[in-house]
Design a protein that fits this description.
Elements: E1 2-15, E2 28-39, E3 44-55, E4 59-70, H1 73-83, H2 88-112
Antiparallel strand pairs: 1-4, 2-3, 3-4
Length: 141
């Protein structure tokens, strides 16, 4: 089971607030949705998806695309068409691929439309110099 081909087919970013408006609390929700699975042949299925990052009234980023899933394509397409779901291991692989490819793209779109990046920014805490603790074992690289 692997993802052979990944492509973006649509990108949309909108900011609803005006420049200078400062909302207090911004909640950023990520969502990846598989919209269609179609069998290409016995080993491959075309998977269409939509990724959305929603900024609680501040804006939205939508990315659409498709990928080719290599595995048991007939079973995957049949289960998707009858039940609207996938096996857990396949769903995990597909949604991980969507997130790994769409979040970096969403960061760039957010920059362009002046929204906060859709990832948690690390907080830097600088405290006094910590004392080094002696190591009790050997270092292995």
């Amino acid at each position: 089971m692997t993802i052979k081909h990944f492509e973006l087919t649509g990108v949309d970013g909108k900011r609803f607030s005006k420049m200078g408006e400062k909302p207090r609390n911004i909640r950023i929700d990520h969502n990846s949705t598989v919209t269609l699975i179609v069998e290409r042949n016995d080993r491959e299925a075309n998977v269409e998806f939509r990724f959305t990052a929603t900024y609680s009234g501040l804006g939205v980023i939508k990315i659409e695309g498709s990928m080719v899933y290599e595995g048991d394509a007939p079973a995957l397409a049949k289960q998707w068409s009858t039940e609207g779901k996938m096996p857990d291991n396949v769903a995990s692989e597909i949604h991980t691929t969507i997130m790994n490819n769409c979040i970096p793209e969403a960061v760039m779109i957010a920059r362009d439309v002046r929204l906060p990046p859709p990832i948690p920014m690390p907080k830097v805490n600088i405290k006094g110099k910590a004392s080094a603790t002696p190591s009790t074992g050997i270092e292995v690289a």
